[in-house]
Specification:
Helix content is 78%, strand content 0%. With 427 residues, it is mostly helical. α17 runs antiparallel to α20.
Length: 427
């Protein structure tokens, strides 16, 4: 390994250990390496700006805005009520409602963290009140929240598309649908099995006169996803245009139909949106310069050669990719990992016979599992805080859920049709 690579990777890891923010760590390590190599620093800045010069990135602020609006407008409660009408009467009904509501909400927010914060703050106390064990309540909530990064629209897929050099966002959205639903189904089956074993209570019946209103209001919220995906699949508009239309629809539904919050709250919504957006865009710009230096130093090729030298078997290479991503997901957040790992591992994955869309879905699922895995799983931390229970207890309770998620992950990694079957219909 050359001194250039040691400076780039070594300074980045040291800064992370010193708890310097990831985006700033990327910038500093890129600058240090650029100075050592004698690279024109203006070129690094141009790479940072160039990394943001992508039409598909315009979708991110609109998706974030739509999620913020719907969350502020009470969509969480309405989706919980809708899920309760559908499956609440079954044994362990409230736990199953938790999973199904996460499936619904994931299709709106695209964020596991938003899912846990919004639904968890309502459902975890409800489950505890109905005598569900706290560790089980938190485990169901955070594991089902991982659907949010898979079920479209997911801004993480847009970030991957940019890092991968322009992979179709529409194909990624469609490709993530089946694995996301498979993940939700596996968690739901496990949730029900544990509920039966521990004899958790059945859900309360909903008054018949309330059912039409609950279904109507819940479906109005879910129409956000239908509008976005329907427009993309029909070719009527692009992913970026669909994001803007979805944000407009969310605004109309929240302030003209639900009318739970005042239009004055729009200032808070925009503040939260811009705060999140600034972090995401700074991270994308910083990683663009970092990735340019990685490519210049031929780090992806070095990694590919090293992994292939372990075994020429494609199945072994794919397993190594999965293991590496799971390990990285345990110590770093999702968005920066997508930006850092994609330019390094995508060439290896292609050499192993993986389609870029297939690799993208596998990568996002791996890192989604990392969000609920100690020691740095952000969703695990939030869920534990809401449930007021230690991370150690939740992690122990999560063991069967980890097993279910890993089974789905291996199916997605080794059976490309899970990710590519639906997109093949719309090519």
């Amino acid at each position: 390994m050359t001194m250039d690579v040691l400076i780039l990777m070594g300074s980045f890891l040291i800064l992370l250990l010193l708890r310097v923010p990831i985006a700033l760590s990327l910038v500093v390590s890129s600058l240090l390496t650029g100075i050592y190599m004698g690279v024109d620093l203006a070129a690094l800045v141009q790479r940072m700006v160039g990394g943001l010069n992508s039409f598909s990135l315009l979708a991110i602020p609109f998706f974030i805005l739509a999620g913020e609006i719907m969350n502020e407008g009470g969509i969480s409660r309405r989706l919980i009520d809708l899920a309760n009408v559908l499956i609440g009467k079954i044994r362990g009904g409230l736990a199953l409602v938790n999973v199904l509501a996460s499936t619904f909400f994931g299709g709106i927010s695209g964020s596991a963290l938003a899912d846990t914060s919004s639904l968890g703050s309502v459902l975890i106390p409800m489950m505890k009140k109905q005598k569900y064990d706290t560790d089980y309540s938190v485990s169901v909530t955070i594991s089902s929240a991982t659907q949010g990064v898979m079920i479209p629209p997911s801004h993480n897929m847009i970030i991957y598309s940019t890092a991968a050099g322009g992979v179709s966002v529409g194909s990624l959205f469609i490709g993530g649908l089946l694995p996301g639903l498979l993940l939700g189904l596996s968690i739901m089956i496990l949730t029900y099995a544990i509920a039966v074993k521990k004899n958790y209570p059945k859900g309360e019946r909903v008054a018949k006169e309330q059912i039409p209103k609950i279904i109507r209001e819940g479906l109005l919220g879910l129409l956000t996803v239908v509008i976005i995906m329907g427009g993309i699949l029909s070719g009527f508009f692009t992913a970026t245009e669909s994001a803007a239309i979805g944000a407009l629809y969310a605004f109309l539904i929240t302030f003209l139909v639900y009318r739970e919050v005042s239009i004055k709250r729009m200032g808070v919504i925009l503040h939260n949106t811009f705060k999140t957006l600034s972090m995401v865009l700074f991270l994308i710009g910083a990683s663009s310069a970092f990735g340019w230096l990685l490519a210049m130093l031929r780090v992806p090729q070095m990694v590919a050669d090293a992994m292939i030298s372990i075994s020429p078997n494609n199945a072994v290479t794919i397993l190594l990719i999965v293991v590496i991503l799971l390990m990285l997901g345990m110590v770093m957040d999702m968005a920066p990992l997508i930006l850092i790992a994609t330019p390094i591992l995508l060439p290896v994955a292609i050499t192993a016979g993986m389609d870029p869309v297939h690799f993208g879905i596998t990568l996002i699922l791996c890192l989604g599992i990392g969000l609920v895995t100690p020691p740095v799983g952000s969703v695990l931390f939030v869920g534990s805080a809401i449930g007021r229970i230690s991370i150690e207890k939740v992690s122990k309770s999560m063991l069967p859920f980890y097993g279910a998620m890993l089974v789905v992950l291996l199916l997605v990694a080794y059976v490309p049709s899970f990710s590519l079957w639906l997109p093949s219909f719309f090519d």
